[in-house]
Amino acid sequence: ATILEQGNISIHTENIFPIIKKWLYSDHEIFLRELISNAVDAIQKLNMVARTGEFSGDLSEPKIEITLDKEQKTLAIADNGIGMTADEVKKYINQVAFSSAEEFVEKYKGSNDQQIIGHFGLGFYSSFMVAQHVEIETLSYQEGATPVNWACDGSTEFKIAEGSRASHGTTIILTLQEEEAEYLEPFRVKELVRKYCDFMPFPIALDGEQVNRQKALWKESPSSLSSEDYLEFYRYLYPFQEEPLLWVHLNTDYPFVVNGILYFPKLRPDVDVTKGQIKLFCNQVFVSDNCEEIIPRFLLPLRGVIDSTDIPLNVSRSFLQNDRTVRRIADYIAKKVGDRLKELYREDYPAYVQSWQDLGTFVKFGSMNDDKFKKQVEDILIFRTTHVADATTDAPKVQVETAEGDVWQDNTQENNAAALPYTTLKDYLERNKEKHENRVFYATDESAQATYIELFKSQGLEVLFMDSFIDTHFVSFLEREYSDVNFSRVDADLDDTLIDKEKESEIVDPSNNKTRGEQIKEIFEVALSKPKVTIRTEALKSDGENAPPAMVLVSE
Ligand code: ADP
Ligand code: MG
């Protein structure tokens, strides 16, 4: 088509502030995060300058100070960082912000999805979400620099005048809007500093007192940290919670930057496993409590922190799910978790077994959901077994205080679990291949199936326990995975309607004067020669409590 006219799109700057105020960020409170981030950057930059030898002043006390004045309705943030010359103020505060805004409006005008707004050099302008007037007092670190004062009342006009700062750095003074008075309350400001800036690398003080914790444990080298360091950090992040089972320190620079510490909590019923609990950071700045898109679904119950500059932070959730880097980060996390589990298996098997009830859920769920993870952990997948039949009774007894005085009792449940042996599927099949090749007997309910378990045990047959809440699904998964292995539940097909009476080849009745041992032997001699066998117990006969149930053998 014929071009009728060509030109530059012009921007009405007076339209920009309302857009920024309305759409820049979903939450007004993040202005504080933005201004403190700028202060951290300013100190960081001065450190970098110093490394080149261009600055030889004192760097030993980096600090960011927040001052609240209820009378004047001001909130001020001061740093002793790099500062700005008048030219830099014009360039970075006036110019760049406007040109960034230009880009912003060009791209997103009309959109009301706050999440889309990235880092367009607009952070500073978020102060206008809460302030009616913003002033900058700044002095550059450069020799001979003069202090500058910049002021703006949220209109498109600014004033630059001679400033009053005597030492290098910048002070941003916000005169808050009437309806934003909450940011004059020390407890509110403290709360925000803790939420967003707790792990920023320089001290942030309010009324002379440091508010942030400052130390980001995940940035430290794992070899310099003790178990107590990790546990203390966990208690700090999740107060009043049970100790975690183990943790993984993530630490990579290539092909993406990911730092973090992930903890496995005990999976108690009150732990919500459907909601992510990991805190997401970007350069030690808190971003979100929710990074469900970044970690694999089966690791959702994990806790801790992930810090990455490679996760696009202000984009929509559906975009994140499809982002290649995000998917690779998720894979990386799964792999590191698998590695850590294997390490524990190798180096502290008793601890591994002790935690298996919880860890097993992750491992099984992960195996079902992620093929790569499955391959990684299949050799460390264990099942409780009857193999060492006497483990329960042989477990050391413990002295327990009761109302009747001290008594000796069976070991505590937890210790019992550890005392009971576990096995991998591979070892089970290998151990039993003479007796029943490619065949696994398992129980899903230890007390309800006690009779059957006893029956198998007394015949020297090994039974695995698949009795955790995830095992119903997991057994079907195993059946698909090991298509040549037959998994038989010890009490399979108890339901009478499932039993084909015609196929009831043997009935062992307790009234025929055989001892229980003889009955059992008889059953198993037949059972082991059949491809599939169902054993059914009849209701107890009337000849006394101790009479064994009649057992019906059904073979196909
Ligand atoms: P961004 O941080 O993404 O660059 P901002 O709008 O937050 O965007 O800040 C714009 C620029 O203003 C910064 O890049 C920096 O050059 C300058 N600036 C802002 N705050 C400070 C400060 N406290 N000290 C020195 N320079 C600052
Ligand atoms: Mg910024």
Molecular structure report:
The protein is elongated. About 13% of the residues have low confidence. The chain is 33% helix and 21% strand. Strand 3 and strand 4 form a beta hairpin. It has an eight-stranded mixed sheet, with helices on one face. With 556 residues, it is α+β, with helices and mostly antiparallel strands. Bound molecules: adenosine-5'-diphosphate and magnesium ion.
Helix-strand layout with pairing:
Layout: H1 13-23, H2 30-51, E1 64-69, E2 74-79, H3 86-108, E3 131-139, E4 148-152, E5 158-162, E6 169-176, H4 186-197, E7 204-206, E8 209-210, H5 227-237, E9 246-252, E10 258-264, E11 277-282, E12 285-288, E13 303-307, H6 317-322, H7 324-347, H8 349-354, H9 356-369, H10 371-377, E14 382-385, H11 391-394, E15 398-402, E16 405-409, H12 413-419, E17 422-424, H13 425-431, E18 439-443, H14 450-458, E19 463-465, H15 471-481, E20 486-489, E21 504-508, H16 516-527, E22 533-537, E23 551-555
Parallel strand pairs: 1-7, 11-13, 18-19, 18-20
Antiparallel strand pairs: 1-2, 2-6, 3-4, 3-6, 4-5, 7-8, 9-10, 10-13, 11-12, 14-17, 14-19, 15-16, 21-23, 22-23
Bound molecules: adenosine-5'-diphosphate and magnesium ion (MG).
Adenosine-5'-diphosphate binds at residues 34, 38-39, 42, 79, 81-82, 84, 92-93, 97, 119, 121-125, 170.
